[in-house]
Each structure stands twice: as C-alpha cells, then as structure tokens.
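thought: user wants a sequence for this fold. calling inverse folding tool.
action: design(structure=
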C-alpha cells in the first residue's frame, strides 16, 4: 500500500460503550460521514449482535484493563467515549487516549466527571499533543457553543441566560444508571450549607414548544461556559416538564419514530447574552436530544482531525472551536440555527 493510499484512507474513530443508545447514533453518523468506526464494548456477546448501518470493526475491552483498552483503540486517531456513567469510565478512556496520542471526546452530562477530566488531563494532553474535550453532547457543549455564538466578538458580557426547552424526556437505561450513580455519590458526600431554591420562570420558546416553565438547572453547561466567557451573571434553565419526566420511574425509554431511530422528542435551546443596552440571541431547535449528540460529536471530531487544526490540552469545545461554524454546519438538518440581535 502506497503512502498516498494511506493518506487518503478514511480516519478511524473508536467509540467506547458502543452498544449503548447514544453510541448507536454516533457510529451510524461516523459511517454516514465516510469515517471508519471501531465499536468497543465490555460485553462481547451484545456487541456481536449490535446492528449498525454499515461495516464496523468490533473489539471487546475492559475499561479497567489498560492493556485490553490499548489494544482495542489501536489504529484510531480519535476516541468518542459513550460509556456512562462517565464518573466511572472517563478517566480510564482519557488516560488510554493520552497513551495512544489520540484526541478524546466524551458525551458526559455529569459535572463531576467533566471537571475531573479537565483538571486531570490538561497537562498530559498538552504533552501528548492531543485535545481532550469532555461533554460534547446535547447537555454540555451544545449550550456552550450557543452562548459562544451569541457572544460573538464581545470579550465579556454583563449577563448570560441559557434556556433549554424540551417537550418531554424519556430517559434511556444508561441515563437512569447515571442518575443512580450520581445520587450515590451525593449521599456519600459531606453535607454542605443549604442552597437557596432554584429560580423558576416562564419562557416562550416559540414553535413547537410555546411557553414553558423552566427552572434553574445545569448539567455541565455552567462549568464549560465559565472556562472561557467572562460574565458577572450566568443562569441556565431547563424545562420543568423534562425534569418531571426523568424523575418519574414510570416514564418509558425512547421510542423510535423514523428510519434513523430518532424519537419524537422536540427541543429548542436559546442563549441570550447582554452587554450594556445590547442583547444578542442564538437559538437552535431539533429532534431527539440523544440522537442530536451524534452529529454534534462527529462534527467536532472532524474538525479535530483536520490537518489545519492546531491545539493541545483539555478544553471546553467553545474555547478552541468556531462555535458559529459548527452550529451552521449542522443546519438546517439536524438543527435549525440562527443568531440575531434583540
């Protein structure tokens, strides 16, 4: 095989936790983009039965076995970690990515995991010449990118509001497992001073959600945004209907309603950034927050693998990537995206 043939070969991207709900969308999105996915999972039998939309290399690995994980990642240029709970998996996979000198992304919505990844792997990633990006997902980098796009050329903002609207939230089994894991950690933690009750308000998201009650609530968005956007007031809100759904143990898992496996869930996310008398707004809407994570993560991977890209270290996506370019690249499908002055 000639050097020219090797150069033109599609990039190989590993996906850890490949038998999960979100990973299924990620792998199929990589195939759609003519990349070569390597599906990695702990359960070899489930992995063998998994159905993808094209040919996929399948490898078994235990996350707590460095030799096994290193072997499974062999040949990849980047890895997308979809193996939640990420408080348990991220450290193992990110460490393996550093050893292999490949870019690392995960789709964590867990603030403790994202914080630990950013703090632990910045120096090792710089030394290895790779990028480590936690929380490249609907809950996380999506909000960060919207706020960054709305801010534009301002070097700071007086106030930032991010409103995440959903008409429902049918959690996957993986989401349920993550919530239970975080609850265990919170119960084991030393009690802190009681916090004031979160703010609630109504926000008109327009079509298709209309006016919804939202409550102040952040997954990893606040952590990511405050890394690189200077503001004296940041508030993040989530639809109360979404929190009610995910808090109800009887809420079913997502049901596919189209040929790619997306559910009927609709979302609208808006960022409003204010400085003095000026206000800027970025808004985006789409279908199925789990499914949307796949094109978002794969768009980011494609940019990291671009020969012109130059960065190393652990970051929030909005710190090192052009937010407006990424969101525009995802529009009009799977995302409707616009920026405006108010």
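)
observation: tool returned 342 residues.
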């Amino acid at each position: 095989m000639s050097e020219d043939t090797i150069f033109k070969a599609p990039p190989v991207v590993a996906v850890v936790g490949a038998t999960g709900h979100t990973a299924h969308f990620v792998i199929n999105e990589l195939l759609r983009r003519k990349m070569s996915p390597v599906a990695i999972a702990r359960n070899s039998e489930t992995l063998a039965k998994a159905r993808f939309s094209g040919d996929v290399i399948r490898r078994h690995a235990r996350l707590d076995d460095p030799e096994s994980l290193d072997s499974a990642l062999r040949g990849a240029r980047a890895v997308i970690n979809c193996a939640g709970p990420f408080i348990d998996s991220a450290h193992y996979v990110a460490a393996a990515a550093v050893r292999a000198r490949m870019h690392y992304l995960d789709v964590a919505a867990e603030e403790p995991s994202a914080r630990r990844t950013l703090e632990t792997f910045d120096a090792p990633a710089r030394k290895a010449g790779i990028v480590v990006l936690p929380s490249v997902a609907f809950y996380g980098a999506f909000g960060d990118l919207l706020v960054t796009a709305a801010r534009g050329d301002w070097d700071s903002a007086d106030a930032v509001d991010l409103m995440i609207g959903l008409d429902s939230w049918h959690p996957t089994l993986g989401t349920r497992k993550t919530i239970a894991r975080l609850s265990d950690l919170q119960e084991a933690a030393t009690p802190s001073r009681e916090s004031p009750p979160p703010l609630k308000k109504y926000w008109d998201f327009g079509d298709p959600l209309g006016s919804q009650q939202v409550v102040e609530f952040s997954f990893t968005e606040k952590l990511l945004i405050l890394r690189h956007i200077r503001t004296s007031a940041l508030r993040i809100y989530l639809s109360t209907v979404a929190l009610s759904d995910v808090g109800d143990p009887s809420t079913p898992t997502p049901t596919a309603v189209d040929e790619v496996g997306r559910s009927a869930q609709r979302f609208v996310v808006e960022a409003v950034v204010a400085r003095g008398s000026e206000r800027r707004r970025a808004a985006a809407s789409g279908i199925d927050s789990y499914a949307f994570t796949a094109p978002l993560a794969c768009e980011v991977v494609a940019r990291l693998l671009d020969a012109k890209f130059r960065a190393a270290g652990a970051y929030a996506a909005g710190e090192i990537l052009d937010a407006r370019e990424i969101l525009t690249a995802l529009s009009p499908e799977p995302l409707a995206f616009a920026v405006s002055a108010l």
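thought: summarizing for user.
answer: Here is the designed sequence. The longest helix spans residues 111-128.
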